[in-house]
Write a structure and sequence with these properties.
Strand order of the largest sheet: 2-1-5-4-3
GO molecular function, one term: diguanylate cyclase activity
Domain GGDEF: 186-319
Protein name: diguanylate cyclase
CATH architecture of the largest domain: 2-Layer Sandwich
CATH topology of the largest domain: Alpha-Beta Plaits
Enzyme class: transferase
Cofactor: Mg(2+)
Distance between the termini: 107 Å
Helix content: 40-55%
Number of domains: 2
Oligomer: single chain
Length: 322
């Protein structure tokens, strides 16, 4: 019996659609042997349908996570229902190179995947269909937006010149550390320091050279402190440190190390080689301050004492002015 013309036309346009659609179509039997492989899959894999037909998918693509895909297919067959996975769950199933010029920054194609059961004339599932969607453009845009948001979040918390925490973020951490001390009573110290005679640096060498000195002070400090410590730029040439689990004597050792490193450094700028010093005030927290601002005030008083005592020195607060 010959096919009628409408049936023949329908068959041809259906085959043509499956070959030209921008979606990957793969039909597998339950032994994972390839039964159908459309033009999308040929174009991106470089493997023709005739080359891969009846081959086990995992032999042709050893990078495919075999155990994961088998679990997915088993579920589809057993429940006779579709399964779906997105690029956010698994970046891709087939490791195809990304060929889209708009999203050329991505090395490989991001893919969404639908696995559908296919039944025979007896109503039994004997094959599954994989539909592979190229979502690289969408995924790349979303990742770029996430990176931009992360960068904006970071910029909102950091000082642009030095990369240290900005004043608002750092003061919030001082408040958090104050609360932690009130709960647990572990030793903790607060440090305020600034660059000696910084106005003279700006007046003599210019603000660009002054910025280099500020960056140098920030980097030297960052290199000297621990991962658990928090450094911030408090404003202008003034900086702050939170030193958890550190008493006044321990803080003095850390700060004197920073002070000496800065004193023995030379900042090379386009206008001159600059040497500078810092003065440092330390306040170990005890039960007397009622809030973090009073703790900050103690560190600031110690800094003032360091300035009055000749600069280029470290002073620990010992209760004056209380």
């Amino acid at each position: 019996m010959t096919l009628t013309t409408p049936d023949t036309d329908a068959f041809h346009w259906l085959v043509d659609m499956l070959e030209s659609v921008e979606v990957g179509l793969v039909v597998l039997d339950l032994d994972f042997r390839v039964q159908a492989w459309n033009g999308f899959m040929e174009n991106h894999s470089g493997i023709t349908a005739s080359q891969i037909r009846e081959k086990v998918l995992f032999d042709a693509f050893p990078d495919i996570p075999e155990a994961w895909l088998k679990r997915k297919v088993d579920s589809v067959v057993m429940l006779n229902t579709r399964a779906f996975t997105s690029w956010e769950q698994r970046r891709y199933l087939f490791k195809f190179r990304n060929t889209r010029p708009i999203t050329g920054t991505e090395e490989y194609m991001f893919q969404n995947l639908t696995i559908s059961p296919l039944t025979n004339t007896n109503g039994q599932v004997d094959k599954v269909c994989l539909l592979v969607y190229d979502v690289t453009e969408f995924a790349s845009s979303k990742r770029a937006l996430e990176r931009a948001n992360e960068q904006l979040a970071k910029l909102s918390k950091t000082d642009r010149l030095t990369g240290l925490l900005n004043r608002g973020t750092w003061e919030n951490l001082v408040d958090v550390e104050f609360g932690r001390y009130r709960r647990y009573g572990n030793p903790t110290s607060l440090v305020m320091f600034d660059i000696d005679h910084f106005k003279k640096v700006n007046d003599t060498h210019g603000h660009l050279a002054g910025d280099e000195v500020i960056r140098h002070a920030a980097q030297t400090t960052q290199d000297a402190i621990r991962h658990t410590d928090s450094a911030g730029r408090y404003g202008g040439e003034e900086f702050g440190l939170i030193l958890p689990e550190t008493d006044g004597d321990g803080a003095a050792i850390i700060c004197d190390r920073i002070r000496m490193a800065i004193e023995n450094s030379v900042v090379k700028t386009t206008v001159a080689d600059i040497q500078y010093t810092i003065s440092v005030g330390i306040a170990e927290l005890d039960s007397q301050p009622e809030n973090y601002m009073q703790w900050l005030q103690r560190a600031d008083e110690a800094l003032y004492e360091a300035k009055e005592g000749g600069r280029n020195r470290v002073v620990v607060y010992h209760g004056w002015g209380v």
